[in-house]
Amino acid sequence: MAGSSRARAWLELVRPPNLPTIASNAVLGAWLGTMAQGRVPNLPGASWASDASDPRLEVADLGLFARVVVGICGLYVFGLILNDVFDLAVDRRERPDRPLPSGRIRVGSAVLVAVLVWMGSLWLLGGSGSGPAFIDPAVLTLTATLTALIVAYDLLHTRVSWAVGLPALCRGLAIVLAAAATMPNAESGPTAAWIPREGLDLAVVLVPAGVVAVFVFAVSVVARGEVAAVRRACPACGQELLEDAARCPECGRAVSMPASRIRTASELGRGPWWVVASGVPCLLPALGFGALLPTLGLGVSVEEQGLRDAATVAAFGGWVFVVAKWSGRTPVPRLVGRWLGSLCLIDAVMLAPLGPLPLAICVLLYGAGWMLARRFAGS
C-alpha cells in the first residue's frame, strides 16, 4: 500500500473531525485546573485585564498545556482504535470499507498502536513539569478510571442500552483529568495541588465538566436512534417478519436481512430542542467565572468588563446558531455531527470570561473540526 493510502487509512480509523472537540475539552480542563490554583497561565491574552501581572509567554506553561492536550487526545485515539477492533465482526457485515475489515490496516497493528498511544498519554499526563518524571497518584487513578470507562463503552455499546451514558462520563472525566494533570507543580509537590483549599476549587472544575457531560449524554441518546428499521413482510405469503428474522415463520422461505434507513430531524419530535436545551447551562459557569475573577486579583476596568461580557455573549450566540440550524429533512447523523462539533463552542462560552486566548483557541478548534468534517467521517 502506498504511503499516502496508508496514512489515509489511519486517519479514517481515528475519525479526525472529533479530535478538535476533545482537544477543546482538554484546554477547558487545563485552564480551569490552573485557575483552581489561584492563578492564570502566563500566556499572552490569558486575561482580559490590561494590567495582568505577567503577559509574557512562559515556556513552562505552554509546554504544560501542550502535554495535557496531547495526552487527553491520545486517550481518545486509544478508545477510537479499540472501538473498531471490538466492532470488527459488525463492520465486516455493515461497513466493509472501514480500514480494519478492508485489510488496509492489520488488526494486530491497530492493537499495538492503541497500546503505545495509551502508554504515551499516561507518560504525558503523569510527568512532572520539572525534575524527574513521575506518575502523580491522582492522575494515575483518574487515567485508570477513564481507561476503564473507554474500554467498557467499546465492549458494551452494541450490547446494552445503558452504555449510552458512558461517552458522557468519559467526556466529563477527561476534563477533570486535564485539570488534575495541570495542577501539580514544583512548588506544591506532586499531590498537594489536587487537595482543594476550599470546596470552590473543585466546583470550578466539576461544574463545567458536568455541563459537557450532560450535553454529550443528550446527543448520545439521540444518536442511538439515528437508524430506523424498515417493516418487512415475506414476499411469498405476506407474513409480517420480525426485525432479525432470516426465514419466514409461516412458509419457511429464506428472506433477506432487515433493511434500515436514516432518520431525519422531523422524526425526532422535540428531540433536537431537548439537546439544545441541555447545552444552555454552559452560561452558568461563564457567569460564575466572571464573578470569581476579582478573587484572583484579575479585576478589570469597566471597558474591559464590557469586552469580556460581549465575548461571552457572542460565543453563546455562535453556539446557538450552530446547534439550532436544521430543517425537518436534515439527516440525524449530520445533525449529531454538528452537535458534537459544537462542543468547542460550549467550551468557548465557559472560557470566554477568563481571557481572549482560551476563547480564540476553542473557536479555532471548532473551525478545524468543521474543515476536517468535509473530508473525513466523524462516525
Query: Helical residue percent?
Result: 55-70%
Shape: globular
Beta-strand portion reads under 5%
Unreliable stretches (pLDDT < 50, length at least 5) are: 128-133, 185-197
Report the count of strand segments: 4
CATH architecture classification name of the domain at 3-226:
Orthogonal Bundle
Order of helices and strands: HHHHHHHHHEEEEHHHHHH
Outline the biggest β-sheet. 2 strands, antiparallel
Q: Can you identify the CATH superfamily of the domain at 3-226?
A: UbiA prenyltransferase
- In round numbers, the mean pLDDT is 80
The radius of gyration computed from the alpha-carbon positions, rounded to a whole number of angstroms, is 23 Å
- Level-1 CATH class name of the domain at 3-226: Mainly Alpha
Any idea of the CATH topology of the domain at 3-226?
A: Tetracycline Repressor, domain 2
Write the layout of secondary structure elements.
Blueprint: H1 3-14, H2 19-35, H3 59-86, H4 88-94, H5 107-126, H6 137-156, H7 166-182, H8 189-192, H9 199-224, E1 227-229, E2 232-233, E3 240-241, E4 260-262, H10 271-279, H11 283-292, H12 302-323, H13 332-341, H14 343-351, H15 356-373
Helix pairs in contact: 2-3, 2-7, 2-9, 2-14, 2-15, 3-5, 3-6, 3-7, 6-7, 7-9, 9-10, 9-13, 9-14, 12-14, 14-15
